[in-house]
Design a protein that fits this description.
This protein is an all-alpha fold. It has three helices and no strands. Helix 1 packs antiparallel against helix 2, helix 1 (about 5-30) packs parallel to helix 3 (about 65-85) and helix 2 (about 35-55) runs antiparallel to helix 3.
Amino acid sequence: MANRRTLKRDMNYVFGDIIEAAYLHQITHPDEDPSKSEKVVDEAISDFDELIGKMNQKDIENKKQHFRGIEKEFEVKAKVLVEKINAL
């Protein structure tokens, strides 16, 4: 299991790259509707906020299991967002 700081950093980088890819798509395809890529950006921001909120919870009984669950959820959410960007 990665430590807490590394996991937060990884989440920040991955969600940042997803947001950057969505904005690059907007710039390179100005004729397409920008609301689709903005929806992906909004979803990335809300997923990031949700996961950071789960990481900052204080009343956790089994920390190792809790953070493994967050890692798995992070991977799933990131893959879904990447698939949405690829579908644009």
